[in-house]
Amino acid sequence: MLVTFTTEAYADITMFGDVALSMLQMMGHSTTVPGAILAEDVPAALSQLSAAINAAKAAPQIVDKAADEPEVSLAHRGLPLIALLAAAAKAECNVMWK
After folding, report:
1. β-pair partners for 24
2. Could you tell me the residue range of the domain that residue 19 belongs to?
3. What does 22-79 look like in DSSP terms, one character per residue?
4. DSSP 59
5. Helix axes 74-91, 17-26, angle to 10 degrees
């Protein structure tokens, strides 16, 4: 499953479903797809997501040396969504996902 986040203030962001649902939980929202965040709630969602990602960065990382591909951290995966939320907060726009 893919989840696409949209707002009028930024380009659409598409994520794999498991990552998107994890990001939604970090923002304090339901993992229901489709869904939306009202413009007045976007700054709080951005703050919660940023705090959760910063906490994840501080946690020790487990490295699987047997894996063929390098692990992509939540901090890197969350950057586009953080940018989208910041643009939506600045422009006072709703954020939707489907």
Report:
1. none
2. 2-97
3. HHHHHTT----SSEEE-GGGHHHHHHHHHHHHHHHHHSPPPP-TT-SSPPPPHHHHHH
4. S
5. 60
Q: Between vectors from CA 23 to CA 3 and to CA 91, what angle results, nearest 5°? A: 80
- How many C-beta neighbours within 10 Å does residue 67 have? 8
**pLDDT tens for each residue of the chain, 98 residues long:** 999 999 999 999 999 999 999 999 999 988 899 999 999 999 999 999 999 998 877 766 666 666 667 677 788 899 999 999 999 999 999 999 99
Measure the CA–CA gap between 26 and 70, rounded to whole angstroms.
23
State CA 85 to chain mean position distance. Answer: 8
- What's the number of domains the chain is made of? 1
